[in-house]
């Protein structure tokens, strides 16, 4: 109905308060003359004449309940006029005209973040990357139904840069130069994964929900895995009935507590440990693991690491034995006697010394 923006403003002033009266002012006469001139011009040019709305404008078209259209785009404004119940363009989870900013945005605004600190920003980026890897490595029931647990785990390892070997085969499967690999993509009976090389993978503890379903896994290797930590070691209990060889190297997330959980791998025969920067008592843990697991041989431990400081030997040994569950009453009695002996003074030594004949 509106012909031009100028006519729309004139009509809104003329018809906002009701139909036109006889005692209108000179301004209404001027508007009538302008509209008549426009109609005459349209007749001369053989154009259809525009009908004039002679009734009051409805309230929902007047826009009294709407904000100033200067703050909005024209399209958004007229859409709001035609449909007042429709949400505006900015009414999202982050912002609403009625409620303002959401709680999430308010939390972000109050976040104490120093954008000039490179270490803090790097830590935030690393945390977000870790969360993304956790989400990507979740267990998918649909994948296991389509491929079976063995092939599902094999595809999971290969797609993320690892390597696998199947039972009865000497060939290792991994990605080629074109980042593709060739293993069956349908369920194959009697096909089992025997060895997994996860070197360089950004494997988190979430991925062990898939690796833990391998029924004949005997070999595992973790080298240069940034997210491999104590939580991952604790989840190796799921393959404790078959695992025979385990290699862990250059994994900064592994500590003494994580290595102490390996006592549950009773069928483990070879354990290779190297370049574990956060393990303080590697030699002591190696000795106690060999004592607790009958056929185990720990490799990669130097002679210096096998000789802890004498003043800390008893306490560290007792701590590690407690973690492994090897303490008994005899150990408690020996520790008590050693503690009493260390408290003795020179006078006490004289009382226990024998006289010389």
From TrEMBL:
Example of a GO biological process term: SCF-dependent proteasomal ubiquitin-dependent protein catabolic process
Listed Polar residues bias regions: 37-49
Any GO CC annotation of this UniProt entry: SCF ubiquitin ligase complex
InterPro entries: LRR_dom_sf
Stretch list, region Disordered: 16-49
PANTHER family noted in UniProt: PARTNER OF PAIRED, ISOFORM B, PARTNER OF PAIRED, ISOFORM B-RELATED
Family: Belongs to the ATP synthase subunit s family.
UniProt name for this protein: ATP synthase subunit s-like protein
């Amino acid at each position: 109905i509106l012909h031009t923006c100028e006519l729309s403003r004139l009509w809104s002033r003329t018809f906002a308060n009701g139909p036109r009266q006889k005692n209108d002012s000179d301004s209404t006469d001027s508007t009538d003359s302008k509209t008549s001139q426009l109609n005459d011009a349209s007749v001369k040019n053989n154009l259809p004449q525009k009908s004039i709305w002679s009734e009051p404008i409805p309230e929902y078209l007047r826009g009294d309940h709407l904000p100033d259209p200067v703050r909005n785009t024209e399209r958004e404004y007229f859409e709001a006029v035609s449909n007042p119940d429709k949400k505006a363009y900015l009414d999202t989870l982050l912002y609403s005209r009625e409620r303002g900013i959401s709680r999430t945005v308010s939390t972000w605004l109050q976040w104490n973040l120093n954008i000039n600190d490179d270490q803090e920003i790097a830590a935030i980026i690393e945390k977000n990357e870790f969360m993304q890897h956790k989400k990507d490595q979740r267990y998918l029931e649909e994948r296991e139904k389509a491929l079976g647990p063995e092939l599902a785990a094999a595809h999971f390892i290969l797609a993320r840069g690892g390597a696998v070997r199947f039972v009865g085969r000497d060939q290792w499967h991994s990605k080629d130069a074109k980042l593709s690999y060739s293993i069956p993509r349908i369920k194959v009976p009697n096909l089992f994964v025997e060895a997994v090389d996860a070197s360089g993978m950004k494997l988190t503890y979430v991925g062990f929900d898939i690796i833990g379903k391998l029924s004949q896994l005997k070999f595992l290797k973790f080298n240069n895995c940034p997210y491999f930590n104590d939580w991952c070691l604790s989840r190796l209990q799921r393959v404790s009935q078959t695992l025979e060889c385990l290699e862990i190297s250059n994994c900064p997330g592994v500590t003494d507590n994580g290595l102490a959980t390996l006592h549950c791998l009773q069928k483990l025969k070879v354990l290779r440990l190297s370049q574990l920067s956060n393990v303080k008592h590697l030699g002591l843990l190696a000795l106690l693991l060999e004592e607790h697991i009958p056929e185990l041989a720990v490799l990669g431990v130097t002679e210096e690491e096998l000789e802890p400081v004498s003043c800390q030997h008893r306490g560290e040994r007792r701590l590690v034995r407690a973690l492994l569950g090897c303490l008994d009453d005899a150990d408690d009695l020996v520790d008590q006697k050693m503690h009493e002996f260390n408290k003795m003074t020179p006078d006490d030594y004289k009382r226990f010394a024998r006289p010389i004949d």
